Amino acid sequence: MTVKTQQLCPLCHSHEIARFFQDKRREYLRCQICKLIFVPIQFHVTSKAEKAEYDLHQNSPEDMGYRKFLSRLMEPMNHRVAAGSRGLDFGSGPGPTLNLMFQEAGHSMEIYDPIYANDKTILNQPYDFVTATEVVEHFRKPASDLDQLWSLVKPGGILGLMTKLAIDRDAFSRWHYKDDCTHISFYSRDTFTWVANHWKAKLSLIGNDVILFSRPKPSA
Q1: Measured between alpha carbons, how far is 131 from 152 in angstroms, rounded to an integer?
Q2: With contact defined as beta carbons under 8 Å apart, do 142 and 10 qualify?
Q3: What is the rounded CA–CA span in Å between residue 25 and residue 22?
Q4: What is the DSSP letter of 207?
Q5: What whole-number distance in Å separates Cα of residue 188 and Cα of residue 99?
Q6: Which domains does the chain have, with CATH numbers?
Q7: Cα–Cα dist 218/81, whole Å
Q8: Residue 207, C-beta contacts closer than 8 angstroms, at least 6 positions apart
């Protein structure tokens, strides 16, 4: 049932919001237009608590399991970008690894993270490809945050995301992904289709958690 709320959809800014699910800790709303599932702002954790959660992550370039996980995004992107391309890993975290994997494949890659590598000059230039792995589910303002990522992609370039995709309410009720207190924006195939249409981008969905957006080259 659609509910009246002063909070607009944080992605498409629609008023058409419906209650989707509630557990003991917080509630989840879903936009009826772009299908984003999101946690209302009053349930967001503080920035301090968010950083404390990230500090628990033990990812590192030496962890072969972590490299295998990242390869689900890295390999399809590596096949699509030209040799020697220049990229950016947005939200690289406390143990940057994906940038090293792309460097080993012959590309150059900068890193940016609002907590661990907060050099905003990195965001003042476009890139052949941009990645964000396990990042977009943390976005408090997905409209502006996603648009920022897209603005960093050159014409003909690719934006690659990794995030688990929501399915339906029954699956959501049993979904471990929602139980992370820092996960506040949940996307489905329908949501990313809306985003691709909004950007006039080509969308490729690979497996259960890899999303690629290709920016068209300008017409000759």
Answers
A1: 10
A2: yes
A3: 8
A4: T
A5: 27
A6: 2-214 (3.40.50.150)
A7: 17
A8: 72
pLDDT tens by residue, 93-134: 888 999 999 999 999 999 999 999 999 999 999 999 999 999
Residues 159, 203: Cα–Cα separation, whole Å? 10
In sequence order, which ranges of the chain are alpha helices (DSSP H)?
Answer: 47-54, 64-80, 98-104, 142-151, 169-173, 189-199
What is the CA 218 to chain-centroid distance, rounded? Answer: 25
DSSP secondary structure letters along 124-149: GS-EEEEEEES-GGG-SSHHHHHHHH
pLDDT digits (tens, 9 = 90+) for 29-58: 999 999 999 999 999 998 888 888 887 776
* pLDDT-derived band at 61, boundaries 50, 70, 90: confident
Can you read off the two tokens belonging to residue 202? 């080509």
C-alpha pair distances (Å), 88 with each of 131, 138, 207: 6, 18, 23
Dihedral of the alpha carbons of 18, 137, 112, 104, in degrees to the nearest 10: -140
Token digits for 213? Answer: 């957006």
Question: Two tokens at 43?
Answer: 């349930």
> Under a CB-based contact definition with an 8 Å cutoff, are residues 210 and 163 in contact?
no
